[in-house]
Amino acid sequence: MDPSLWSFFPEDLIDRVLAWLPLPSFFRLRIVCKTWNNLMHCKNFMDLKSSQTPSRSQDSWIVIFADRGYRVMSAFIPSENKWHSIPLSFLPFDISDVTVAGGLLVFRLHETNGASSVCVCNPLTSSWRKLPPMLGGWRDGLIGLVVDRQSRAYKIIVRSNLAPIYSHGLVLRTEVYDSRTDQWMRTEGLDDGITTGHAFCNGVLYFMTWETRSGVYGVYAYHVERGSWSKVHVPIPDFMTCPHVVECRGRLLMVGGFGRRPHFVTEGICVWELQDGSRDWVVVQNMPGRLFRELLNNSSLLSFNCVGHGDMIYLSNRKSPRLLVIFNCVQSSWGRLDTYISHDLHPMYSWFSYYPRLDAAI
What we know:
Elements: H1 3-6, H2 11-19, H3 25-29, H4 34-37, H5 43-50, E1 61-65, E2 72-77, E3 82-87, E4 95-101, E5 104-110, E6 116-122, E7 127-130, E8 137-147, E9 154-162, E10 171-178, E11 183-187, E12 194-201, E13 204-211, E14 216-223, E15 228-232, E16 239-248, E17 251-260, E18 265-274, E19 281-286, H6 289-296, E20 304-309, E21 312-317, E22 323-328, E23 333-338, E24 351-354
Antiparallel strand pairs: 1-2, 1-24, 2-3, 4-5, 5-6, 6-7, 8-9, 9-10, 10-11, 12-13, 13-14, 14-15, 16-17, 17-18, 18-19, 20-21, 21-22, 22-23
């Protein structure tokens, strides 16, 4: 191509062409020149890109964080069967408790004075900001994010503690940040526990929690609009490992390993569904033995990641996502997919379903 010819090409036409590119192309696009790198921060281009056909579910991504310091986000695009690396080097150091929803990433920033701040970020535009201070102190173990796809407003749900009251110890509360008001508000509290994952379904955030007092798993439901908690009983086989709650097309599902005492060996993986009326869990299907053994990868203790993504549930061995076991929630069928990822991952990486949006406002 003749540079003297292309240098006179109207910029508005170039922008219109670039706006039709799929989002993964923007990672390569940004290194071409400063002008194209700055497109991510240009309001006119963002409006042009947003006017194109909205992303469909098959264009959404599955993301994992490759290292302990959250410097890289790895995105798997099912329609391409490809992994892409998204640099997060623009974020501050010493962050943790990351969660993802609706094109946004929320994380905890550990301040030098020992305090914690909540921050929100759009990884595609390399933009982030610190939210106003919480009303109480950060309490480990619970964070959730809900994004309205139409208004783009979002709410962040965290657990906080107030100052000790006499000899009764810390008072735990739930705090909710609302992007529409740019303020935090307190709602009722929740007993202490370690959250191992969450899913948003029909206006309710469901948290899979290890209850520190009783030593068992539980599912706690937070009604976002009412600001109230309730507990959902859990199907408890003789021995359960690595349970996850996931959402698929308005259905709340639980995926977990099961086995028998006293050997505490995982014998299979089961999918349960929560029934709306009775609030009971009903068995949907067990993973076929052949796929289970491949996922287990000759290990007697199974630890796996799991994420609901459109009509599918994706599972992988926690050591590596190179083999994906897929459950189709509509057809109730199982399958497998071999993928290639070029770099090593942190062994405790978590999975998220991510809807990439350049116009996701922080």
